[in-house]
Amino acid sequence: MSDVEPLFPAPCSEPPAPSSSPLADEVRTGLQKTPKRLSSRFFYDAEGSRLFQEIMHAPEYYLTRSEYEILDAHKADYLKQFTPDGRPFELVELGAGDGLKTKILLGFFADKNADFTYAPVDISVDALDELVVDLRQKWPDLRLNPRHDDYFNALEQLSEESDARRVVLFLGSNIGNFSPDDALDFYRQLHNRLQPGDLVLTGFDLQKHPAVIHAAYNDRQGLTRAFNLNLLRRINQELDANFDLAAFDHYEVYNPETGEARSYLVSQKAQTVQIAALDMTVPFQYGEIIHTEISRKFTRAQIEQLAQQTGFSLVGWFTDCKGYFADVVFER
Ligand SMILES: C[S@@+](CC[C@H](N)C(=O)[O-])C[C@H]1O[C@@H](n2cnc3c(N)ncnc32)[C@H](O)[C@@H]1O
């Protein structure tokens, strides 16, 4: 064997670069904050989307039933509002999920031979793939334009001129996950991207007896608990972390003065978690929280003010029989 240095010596071995992905960025910054926080947009991996589908059927989770009732009772009103003259329209749904309630509209519109394209947008590839397979099976002739993307990127794509009227669906109280400033910013962006006459149909969860709201995020089957803890399981799986799920608890609080339901994960003991892909060690005190979700509840006055502050006109207000939920139409 020669002891001459090889011409091309093997490169020095370097530690692998820490991961970079939206989840990695969120975990890196969010778990260094005080209090610690992680955005609810990361709930929806395959298991999170599956758990959310179960939550929608939980007896305490009135939101889905209320919105289902509204869309079913008013599907003909919506069609009339979306296309009074039979003109084609594009139905863009932000955060479509499994489309459980949207399918009421799609089925009715298809029966009425409405001329429309459905463009669901979701950050969860699992939810979107499942939705597309189901829609192709149910309505093979439906014009579909799915997009795996964040709401905000999808909004930027709306800027291109379109001949068809745009109708943006933002159902399921997704708007409740935004802070008041982010909600204003979101509708201002929508206003900039849409053309005069375009519509936005938003599902708002309304303020009601606090006990009803509190129960919706504390179902007896423990589905919301599992959904919240699934975020830690996802971090273990995708970022090679060692969160012990049994050492964290789900805690939710509703403040009727602010209309905010907040979900937390609580460390049940002093502990240290390693996140190998980020080369990060995260200490937790006993009782320390990670804030994971905000679900805001609205009054009619707040919704009217939101429309007014962002340049929209409120042209449709539909609620369920209990007055728990409102599906509201804004016109650009
Ligand atoms: C609470 S679920 C509601 C689903 C559906 N709109 C409904 O009413 O049943 C929220 C959905 O929005 C998606 N989502 C959350 N944040 C998002 C974001 N920033 N961009 C795109 N989709 C998002 C999630 O993946 C999930 O499918």
Automatic annotation (TrEMBL):
Region (Disordered): 1-25
Record key words, sorted: Methyltransferase, Transferase
Domain Histidine-specific methyltransferase SAM-dependent, chain residue ranges per copy: 24-331
Biased composition, class Pro residues, residue ranges: 8-19
GO MF assignments: L-histidine N(alpha)-methyltransferase activity
Top-level taxon: Bacteria
A Pfam entry, by short name: Methyltransf_33
GO biological process: methylation
Enzyme Commission number(s) of this protein: 2.1.1.44
NCBIfam families: egtD_ergothio
Protein name: L-histidine N(Alpha)-methyltransferase
Organism (species): Spirosoma telluris
Gene this protein is translated from: egtD
